[in-house]
Amino acid sequence: MYMGRDLEELSAVPLAEWELEELSFHHFMMSQMRPWMNAQGVSLHQQLIAEIERRGGLGNAEHP
User: Fold this and answer.
1) Angle formed by the axes of helices 39-54 and 20-33, to 10°?
2) For residue 48, what is the enclosing H or E element?
3) pLDDT of residue 28
4) Which pLDDT tens digit goes with each residue over 6-59?
5) pTM of the shown model
6) From the CB of residue 3, how many other CB atoms can be counted at a distance below 10 Å?
7) For residue 51, what pLDDT is reported?
8) Eight-class DSSP state of 64
9) What is the top-level taxon of the source organism (predicted)?
10) What does the pLDDT read at residue 61?
11) How far apart are CA 28 and CA 12, in angstroms?
12) Neighbouring C-beta atoms of residue 21, cutoff 10 Å
């Protein structure tokens, strides 16, 4: 179970400084919520995906 920082805490942290576990968790959660997200949420999710890809993907990272 994910016990890391929530989006409010992470909002002031550049994506490049997020832990892979944080990226993985929030990507998973946003994927589930995407049909109901507004443009700002969709944009953040796209940025998360780009950062995950920049790092080489999730590989064997644990998903929630």
Assistant:
1) 140
2) helix 39-54
3) 96
4) 999 999 999 999 999 999 999 999 999 999 999 999 999 999 999 999 999 998
5) 0.86
6) 6
7) 98
8) -
9) Bacteria
10) 61
11) 20
12) 17
